[in-house]
Design goal:
heterodimer, A: alpha/beta, six-stranded parallel β-sheet, four-stranded mixed β-sheet, 27% strand, B: alpha/beta, elongated, binds iron/sulfur cluster
Chain lengths: 171, 747
């Protein structure tokens, strides 16, 4: 749904995120532009998409802490608010999205849900049945506690979302 | 301390805050307040808050059953639930967890509930290192102060003050100056603490019974880090945080950030169902891939993900500490629906000017703090600040779960009144004050609560009574006994009351009058602001109404505002009785004083039977609301005076705005060609008796001055409420009621 995608992109910009729309064919280049090294990541579990060797996908704590970027897949994303749903997984999506200064989230257009209602349709079974955990993250971490708004507080100061358009809408 | 000393001490404390913390807290809360308005504009806030409210009501009603369900869910997930009776019990449990895990340090994300428990002090005394990682909490911890706001504990501190604090405390290589510097410094310092910590502690904004999920609402990433980095996670939450299902989270996820800070959604709405699958992070083994780390704690079950949930230890501490008693208390129960968004503080003019270091108790701050403090720490803690709620009701519009915060304040005030020891001055006010209250009530409250009797007496003997009241000995006496501030002009009671004027007129009631109207002779319009009453009568008549001004007793607003609920109820019943024949005859009731109009339509619900309330509420109107209705129904607007483009600055009354009644005044004045500009200030700061009280005079003037600033260049100022008129009279010169602008007999 192109409208959902456009809404998602607008909302991301409203919430101070960077966004790149790309295709399966162009993904490697788009990702390379979004990532700053040193980078850590979590393998994408996607037939068509993979992370380059420069992204360390089984990081140590030292690498995690030193990384400038953390690249992760997401569970799903919410178009209306520019929110990405970050799952807690044994593959460490949560810390990889949290510790580096820049979170690069890879979102398939098919993973977009339009709004909060739809998000809760996803969350209901995930939390209640699977007993999983999900962070609904919207924009970079921030605080006003020091007297003015500052981004990058115990979390990324930059969020870059790479959205891979579905092949269907492209044709 | 005598009452008069007490008042002086309170005045001094407020004066101190006005000259220190006020500016920063005002800027911050004012900003969040206007952001909230922006965020909810064009959004169906009311539908969502009704939904949120219903979920909370149901959850609190089913609390015992839900606690059992949470226990079962968390245990199924591999965690532990402990229900702590009180602070000592909760603290003991957390200390045991620390000992069991061989822990030395604990990192915390923000939790007001642990503030309530004094957990940090307890763990500190037991020899543990505790670090607050929320930057606001961290500032407060370093400064060794108490939070000044439920959401932003350090909202009273400016960047410069925090920089001075950090430079002195940490002595960094280079002095810190900007918010950026400070944030970076605190983040790096605390980042290290988080990486080293043995135990991570979070609060919980919500706890889901069906899944054992805890929801955390944050903008910083600290709660996420505290929850997932160490292998042990302890979450502490009041029992009232439980919601039945995941789906129940939805309205709250939409509403909480809007109400709190005016954000559409928070940066992080974290839904953790611990123990979580993320591997723990052991920075002591920096070169072992995190997916292969042992996780330090419990043994894995051999399924391969030894660094994940199997290595994690999770404890949910649910705290009672008075909440079950609140649940049984018909008046305090509503407090348990509170989601601690801070909107009631941000929307409160008094709070904006003094912050939580005056407007707060041991732990909680702002309007709802009265309910929380009375429930968890006891009446005395609530009594410290309860009077700062003037009942303006602006928070009622703001609260995302529709809590009647002013009512909770009124009820607690009533309980405090009943707790008072008899005073040496009781004999002085006893004869003057035919109220229903116990002896020992503060003479200040008693005086203002019985202002109707004073008005009657003062009017009967005016102008002599006014002269006497202004003499030095009389002023000294009222100051000493009742704490009436000498810097305020006392209202001058008129001998020629509105009722007398109306009775003496020989206007023939038009026989073909479209409507018969009772103009309610409220205390202020009848005895003090008589001109606005006359204007109201003439305006109604010009629009074809037959108007009568019968003898109907005082509304009960004055005693209610002093927490004298029984007296207020008795007055409400008398009003109801006096209005009955008029209502039977099909007459509409029109009210000039907005605080009484609001009373008839809002608080009477608490004081009268449903039937009596519905009848009065359904047939009473604020004067310009009624005029608007008449014009809409074809009355001839040209019968009223016209503005010819004259510009008018209008301050609507706080309670009138909460009842959504201000728009009618604006519409009618615009219709009559006045160029109307309305103030956006929540309250004028006078609020009935509040601005007369010596301990609050300076705060009242500080709030009023902000409004006066808005109107500094105004040609003509109008205000609906008596209090607002008195405040603006004092600060800007003569102020009139909007109906006076429409008076066809006006020159
Ligand atoms: S009473 Fe309402 S407005 Fe105040 S903090 Fe609680 S939820 Fe928010």
């Amino acid at each position: 749904m192109a409208t959902s995608l456009t809404r998602f992109e607008d909302a991301l910009v409203d919430h101070d995120c960077d966004v790149t729309r790309t295709s399966v064919a162009e993904f490697d280049g788009a990702l390379a532009d979004a990532v700053r090294e040193p980078a850590v990541g979590v393998a994408l579990d996607d037939q068509d998409l993979s992370l380059p060797a420069a992204v360390e996908t089984d990081p140590t704590p030292a690498q995690l802490q030193a990384a400038a970027s953390g690249v992760t897949p997401v569970a799903f994303a919410v178009a209306d608010h520019g929110t990405v749903a970050i799952p807690s997984t044994a593959t460490a999506v949560e810390p990889v999205s949290l510790y580096p200064d820049r979170h690069v989230a890879v979102v398939r257009e098919e993973q977009l849900v339009p709004d909060t209602d739809a998000a809760f349709d996803e969350l209901g079974p995930t939390l209640a049945r699977e007993r999983d955990s999900v962070i609904m993250a919207t924009g970079p971490s921030a605080t006003g506690d020091m007297g003015a708004l500052v981004q990058g507080v115990h979390g990324p100061s930059e969020v870059h979302v790479v959205v891979v358009e579905s092949e269907v809408t492209q044709s | 301390m005598s009452r008069s000393d007490d008042r002086q001490a309170k005045a001094a404390h407020i004066r101190h805050l006005l000259s220190t913390e006020s500016e920063t807290i005002h800027e911050n809360t004012g900003h969040m307040n206007s952001e909230r308005y922006r965020a909810i504009e064009g959004f169906d806030y009311d539908a969502l808050r009704d939904e949120a409210r219903a979920i909370k009501e149901d959850a609190i009603a089913r609390l015992p059953e839900l606690i059992e369900q949470v226990k079962a869910s968390v245990e199924e997930n591999g965690g532990t639930v402990y229900v702590a009776d009180d602070a000592a019990d909760a603290n003991r449990y957390v200390e045991d967890v620390m000992a069991d895990r061989d822990a030395e340090t604990l990192v915390k994300s923000k939790s007001m509930t642990t503030e309530e428990l004094d957990l940090n002090d307890h763990l500190g005394e037991a020899g543990y290192d505790v670090f607050e990682t929320d930057l606001g909490e961290f500032v407060i911890q370093v400064a060794e102060e108490a939070p000044s706001h439920i959401v932003g504990p350090g909202l009273h501190k400016s960047s410069e003050e925090i920089a001075d604090l950090f430079n002195a405390h940490f002595d960094p290589d280079e002095d810190l100056a900007t918010a950026q510097d400070l944030t970076r410094f605190a983040r790096d310092y605390l980042g290290e603490r988080i990486r080293e910590a043995d135990v991570g502690m979070t609060g919980a904004n919500f706890v889901v019974a069906e899944s054992g999920t805890i929801a955390l609402v944050t903008n910083e990433g600290n709660a996420r880090k505290c929850a997932v980095t160490p292998d042990t996670h302890v979450a502490v939450a009041g029992v009232e945080k439980i919601l039945p299902t995941v789906a129940d989270l939805q309205p709250f996820s939409q509403i909480i950030a809007k109400a709190a800070t005016g954000q559409d959604v928070p940066q992080y709405f974290s839904l953790l169902t611990p123990p979580v699958d993320s591997p723990t992070l052991d920075f002591d083994e920096p070169d072992v891939p995190i997916t292969e780390q042992s996780g330090g704690g419990a043994e894995g079950d051999g399924d391969g993900d030894s660094g994940g949930s199997d290595a994690r230890d999770f404890h949910l501490v649910l705290v009672d500490n008075g909440r079950f008693a609140m649940r049984e208390d018909d008046e305090l129960r509503e407090t348990l629906y509170c989601i601690r968004c801070g909107a009631c503080a941000n929307s409160c003019s008094n709070f904006q000017h003094v912050g939580g270091h005056a407007f707060g108790g041991e732990t909680y701050t702002g309007g709802i703090a009265t309910g929380w403090e009375a429930g968890v720490h006891g009446l005395d803690s609530a009594g410290e600040f309860n009077d700062l709620c003037t009942g303006c009701t602006r928070c009622v519009d703001a609260c995302p779960v529709n809590i009647d915060i002013p009512w909770i304040n009124t009820v607690v005030r009533d309980r405090l009144n009943r707790d008072e020891a008899p005073s040496e001055f009781d004999f002085l006010v006893e004869g003057l004050t035919p109220d229903e209250e116990p002896g020992g009530l503060d003479p200040q409250k008693r005086l203002f609560g019985n202002v109707d009797t004073l008005a009657k007496l003062g009017s009967a003997t005016a102008p002599v009574s006014n002269w006497i009241a202004r003499t030095r000995p009389a002023r000294l006496l009222v100051e000493r006994v009742a704490g009436v501030d000498p810097r305020r002009d006392l209202p001058a009671f008129r001998r020629d009351t509105l009722r007398k004027w109306a009775a003496d007129r020989d206007t023939a009631t038009p026989t073909d009058a479209g409507r018969e109207v009772v103009l309610y002779p409220d205390l202020y319009t009848n005895y003090v602001q008589v001109e606005r009453g006359k204007a109201a009568v003439r305006v109604l008549e010009a629009l074809g109404c037959a108007v009568r001004v019968p003898d109907i007793p005082a509304s009960g607003r004055a005693p209610l505002s002093q927490g004298m609920v029984s007296t207020a109820r008795e007055r409400a019943e008398a009003v109801s009785e006096a209005l009955t024949p008029h209502l039977d005859a099909g007459r509409d009731v029109v009210v000039v004083e907005p605080s009484d109009a609001a009373l008839f339509r809002r608080e009477y619900e608490r004081l009268l039977s449903d039937e009596e309330f519905d009848r009065i509420a359904g047939n009473s109107y604020e004067i310009l609301e009624y005029v608007y209705g008449l014009l809409e129904n074809g009355a001839d607007a040209d019968a009223l005076a016209a503005g010819e483009g004259q510009s008018v600055s209008y301050h609507s009354h706080c309670q009138q705005r909460t009842m959504d009644l201000a728009v009618y005044t604006e519409a009618v004045l615009s219709d009559r060609e006045f160029d109307v500009r309305t103030s956006d200030q929540e309250c004028c700061g006078m609020a009935g008796s509040f601005g007369y009280k010596s301990q609050y005079y300076e705060l009242s003037v500080s709030v009023g001055a902000e409004l006066a600033d808005q109107f500094a260049d105004a040609e003509r100022v109008v205000a609906s409420g008596t209090s607002c008129m008195e405040q603006l009279d004092d600060l800007l010169g003569p102020t009139r009621h909007p109906v006076e602008l429409l008076d066809p007999a006006a020159e």
